[in-house]
Specification:
Layout lengths: L8 E3 L10 E6 L10 H15 L4 E6 L4 H13 L2 E7 L9 H8 L3 E5 L1 H8 L4 H9 L1 E3 L6 H8 L12 E6 L3 H9 L5 E6 L7 H6 L9 E5 L12 H14 L8 H13 L8 E6 L17
Parallel strand pairs: 2-10, 3-4, 3-6, 4-5, 7-8, 7-10, 8-9
Antiparallel strand pairs: 1-2
The structure holds pyridoxal-5'-phosphate.
């Protein structure tokens, strides 16, 4: 079990933050290098459920750069569980990139399969999925299930959550943000920044994991994906490098860099009233920065 005492809350004052607004960063990225940030919270109750069901093997899904795959491999190694990663793409191998290499080094069995088989395997009714269920405990791609969201409800317990008016968090499958919305209180507004293009379907995905009537209000921001998932332009790199220079906080190219950039743009559009107190959840993902050429990021 990772050590929560490593998580810090850091007030920051980047040059784009007006003095009338307060911004804190909840540094989940500090939890663990491999079981990064939000991924631990999504795995926690899934691993417990597997244990309770007497299962020794965890099977899950992801792409070649998946933080979820990296985290599952490391968490299973720590918990003494066998891990199987179903990886989207036949052309990929264990030495394709640092994420795959790390997952394999942590003992995960990697199975590289075609995109269509990958899709089929995830369908609960499909024979290929049924086959996986015979092998072990199956966690959906990105840990997107009720157990995943339940773990993410605990994120807000790590900070004085009630002191914030706004909470901003990156959104891939929507599991993390669903847990945060469930745990947030009346009067708070949660902003889920989608890093995927055209992802209005996430609204339904998030809603499917919400309690009956969450106390907080929320919205899905579909306009700050920066070109789409994994699209990394120079503006983003410049923003991230400057943010690091001004605050000492590293961000990742897929999720947290874009989320902070969204925050800066929303501030610029006067979205946040004076005296807003914003909490940005740093969901981690720094291992993914190894996909960048050396020197592109200044950290
Ligand atoms: C996976 C990931 C997310 C997205 O989390 P979801 O629960 O899938 O929405 C956000 N930030 C980072 C750093 C991630 O690795």
């Amino acid at each position: 079990m990772p050590d929560y005492s490593k998580i810090t809350i850091e007030p920051v004052q980047p040059s784009w933050l007006p003095s009338s607004v307060h911004l804190d960063i909840l540094r989940l990225d500090k939890l663990h290098m491999e079981i990064s940030g939000n991924k631990w919270f999504k795995l926690k109750y899934n691993l417990l459920a597997a244990k309770e069901a007497g299962q020794q093997t965890i099977i899950t899904f992801g792409g070649a750069f998946s933080n979820h795959i990296a985290a599952t491999a490391a968490a299973c190694r720590d918990a003494g569980l066998t891990a199987v990663g179903i990886i989207r793409g036949e052309e990929i191998s264990a030495d394709t990139n640092a994420t795959m290499a790390m997952a394999a080094a942590n003992g995960m069995e990697l199975r590289f399969i075609s995109r269509s088989t990958y899709r089929d395997m995830q369908q609960p009714g499909h024979p290929l999925h049924q086959q996986l269920l015979q092998e072990g405990y199956v966690i959906p791609e990105g840990g997107h299930n009720a157990a995943g969201a339940k773990g993410c409800e605990e994120i807000l317990q790590l900070c004085p959550a009630s002191s914030y008016t706004h909470i901003i968090c990156a959104c891939g499958t929507g599991t993390t943000v669903a847990g945060i919305i469930n745990a947030a209180t009346a009067g708070q507004h949660v902003i889920a920044v989608s890093v995927l293009k055209g992802a209005s379907y996430l609204e339904t995905e998030i809603r499917s994991l919400l309690r009956q009537a969450p106390a907080a209000t929320w919205e899905l921001d579909t306009t700050h994906h920066g070109g789409g998932y994994g699209k990394i332009n120079e503006d983003l790199i410049t923003f991230m490098n400057k943010f690091f220079l001004e605050t000492g906080i590293p961000t990742d190219v897929i999720y947290t860099g874009k989320t902070l950039m969204a925050c800066a743009e929303l501030l610029n559009q006067q979205y946040f009233p004076d005296n807003s107190r914003i909490l940005m959840i740093h969901t981690g993902g720094l291992q993914g920065n190894r996909s960048q050429p050396p020197g592109r990021l200044s950290f």
